[in-house]
Amino acid sequence: MLSFGDCLKEDGPAMPKPDEKDAAVLKAYKDWKDKDGNCLSLLRLVTAVDIKNSITEADCDTSKKYLAKLKEKFEPSDKALIGKLLSELSHCKYDEKKTDMAKHIMHMQSLSSKLFKLGLKIEDPILTHFIFEGLPKEFGAFHVSYNATPSVP
């Protein structure tokens, strides 16, 4: 007995040749086609209209293909993830009540590392700038001291 799960996970049997006489092969194909059609109808029924309209029926003649298209629509793109990480990096504020300075800096380095893996390298001076921008005014002297120190090549 076929289930909807079978239709979503597996490709159905190959379409029988026009001269196919084996009743079991014909029945298996018909059963799968019927169950897959019901599954596809159910998926389309429960999909929001604006999403449903963005998926053409020609692209999705099986429930498995339809589900793959739905997944594709909801997978985060690298651009969206880069934007999220950049926003977090640029708005990250140090709060000594929640964490210590080392953890704050490690968190920002981690964000920079994630961006690097996505193809966007944050140079050390820029990361340092973001770290200083996230510090409260009490660290002003530290900022001035850092800026007064000559850079090492």
List keywords for this structure.
single chain, 153 residues, mainly alpha, 2 domains, 8 helices, rod-shaped
Q: How would you characterize the overall build of this protein?
A:
The protein is rod-shaped, with a radius of gyration of 28 Å. It has helices spanning 4-9, 23-46, 49-52, 63-74, 78-91, 101-117, 124-133, 140-148. With 153 residues, it is mainly α. Helix 2 runs parallel beside helix 4 (63-74) and helix 5 packs antiparallel against helix 6 (101-117). Helices cover 63% and strands 0% of the residues. It starts with a helix and ends in a 5-residue tail after the last helix. The protein folds into 2 domains: 4-74, no CATH class; 78-148.
Number of strands: 0
Q: Calculate Rg over CA atoms.
A: 28 Å
Q: Regions with pLDDT < 50 over 5+ consecutive residues?
A: none
| SSE order | HHHHHHHH
What shape does the CA trace take? rod-shaped
Largest sheet: none
What fraction, in percent, of the residue positions are helical? 55-70%
- End-to-end CA span: 71 Å
Mean pLDDT: 86
> What is the count of structural domains?
2
What structural category arises from helix and sheet content?
Answer: mainly alpha
Number of helices: 8
Residue fraction in strands:
under 5%
List the helices and strands and how they pair.
Layout: H1 4-9, H2 23-46, H3 49-52, H4 63-74, H5 78-91, H6 101-117, H7 124-133, H8 140-148
Question: Summary?
Answer:
This protein folds into two domains: 4-74, no CATH class; 78-148. It is mostly helical. 63% of the residues lie in helices and 0% in strands.
